Amino acid sequence: MCIIKMNKNDARYIRTHKALQDAFEKLIIDSDPGKINVSSITHAANVNRRTFYLHFDTIEDMFDELAEKLANDLSKKIAVISWSDAGDITTLVSKIIGFIEENKPLHKKLICSDDYSKVFKRVSERLAGSSILNQTEVRDPTKRFYYQLRLESTSYSIMNSIRQWLILNEPVSTDDLINCIVELTGL
């Protein structure tokens, strides 16, 4: 068996990789999870199966890459926020909702569907470990444990509140949701 090494900086490679990713995202939005397979992705991207395997080993690798991309993109959005006062939780939640709005059909499907819970979990974990929620250094191990627990609880509260809001088709305004989350987190 001949293994072909692809130059990942080559314009053709980049263009094909993006076509595969775009096709995958479109299938997530438009299809049932059980109907997404290598054939459906390659058909939508207009490439052959062999090309798929030059870019990914499995569809799971595509999910991992998508989760990592979304987590990185969200981290960049919230990294600019300082954690100097309680009002920043409002800014944080606003940035997260703004991020979701940038590609709402995809984000809503990933956040609200149990079939894509891995992606949702990865993004939530990234939020818990983000610099915005982790700027205070706590040296005492006991205090550090409680601090970390609070950070993780806060990040999951934020993401789960947004998830419920989306599942219920946004029954309240964005501002009301933000105010509710700020009140619930106690920050």
Walk me through this protein's architecture:
The chain is an all-alpha fold. Helices cover 70% and strands 0% of the residues. Helix 4 runs parallel beside helix 7, helix 5 crosses helix 6 and helix 8 packs antiparallel against helix 9. The radius of gyration is 19 Å and the shape is globular. The relative contact order is 0.10. The model has no long low-confidence stretch (mean pLDDT 84).
Key descriptive features of the protein:
mainly alpha; 187 residues; single chain
Question: Could you give a quick summary of the protein structure above?
Answer:
By secondary structure, the protein is mainly α.
What is the makeup of the main sheet?
none
What's the total count of β strands? 0
Q: Give me the number of helical elements.
A: 9
Query: Unreliable segments (pLDDT under 50, ≥5 consecutive)?
Result: none
SSE topology:
Elements: H1 11-30, H2 38-45, H3 49-55, H4 59-78, H5 88-102, H6 104-112, H7 117-128, H8 141-167, H9 174-185
